[in-house]
Structure formats: structure tokens, C-alpha cells
Fold this protein.
Amino acid sequence: MTKRTGLRGFTIFMTGFSGAGKSTIAQRLVEVVEEEYQRPLTLLDGDVIRRMLSSGLTFSRADRELNIRRIGYVAAEVTRHGGVCVCAAIAPFRSVRAEARAAVEVFGRFYEVHISTPLAVCEQRDPKGLYRKVRRGEIKGFTGVDDPFEAPQQCELEIDTSAMSLEDEVRRILALPAADGLL
């Protein structure tokens, strides 16, 4: 528990395709939690983690799993110290997401949020130009196209960003820890 607020830490772990909206939602969650709830918050964005903590990893299954284990470890530490951790990562495999959940739940709540935006919408958005590269054959093993994405079977929330506003998405996500008295 934090001394300042007396509240336990928790993790919001967003998973979904590239371009689904995870980073956009995560950034807005940071703003709202800091402005409205004054809770310490750590953002673990998959792209940043890949660059800063996992730069030597490939996109093999083993390396993708190791990347998510690292995210889970950091999320557990943030949660253990009473902070709020927001994770935004593709995290395509259920088993390693379950490992991250188990690591965090030793110290606080873990909310898995599936950003279930349809692949066609993600491909149309294509903010990094990755889908275009996949379709031209420049990238192989791309999650959702020619590599698997195991959708959560029992997540706490599912959000399709093509069907609602950013503010509604953020409010729906924050309703989870609020209902548990964590905000």
C-alpha cells in the first residue's frame, strides 16, 4: 500500500493487434489517472520496452514471451510498491499473459483488457506502415497476419476502438479499479 493514499497498486494490461489503439488509450489513461486520481503511474508501452529493455530480442516466440515476462516483472514491482502500471503490448500468447497476471496478483489486482479492434481496421490505420510492409512481403511472422494472436478467453474487459470514443474507452477501463476501491 502507498503511504500517501493507502491504496493498493494494480496493473492494467492491454493486449491486441498492432494499430488497435493500445498506446493511444494508455496515454490517455496516464493523463486521467494523474489529473483526477493523483496516483503514481508507470506506462510500459510495448514499443518503448522493445527499444529500451528488450532491444536484443527477435520476434521469435521465445523472445516475444521473454519480452512479456519482462513487462510482467516490472508491472509486478510497480504494483508491489502501490503504483498503477499501464501496459500496452501486443502480447500474443495467453500462457505468458497468464504468467504476467500471476506475477502481479501476488501484490495487487491485474486487469487484462483486450483491445479487440478488428484486424481490417488496424490494417487501415497502419500508423507505422507495418501492415503495408507485411503485404509486400518485407516482414514475416507478423502477429494477426501470418503469426498467431491468442485472444484472451477470460479478460476483464474487451474494447473495440472502432466502436467507441477514447473517453468512453478510458472510463470503461477505469471503472474496473474504481469498482474495487483502488481509485
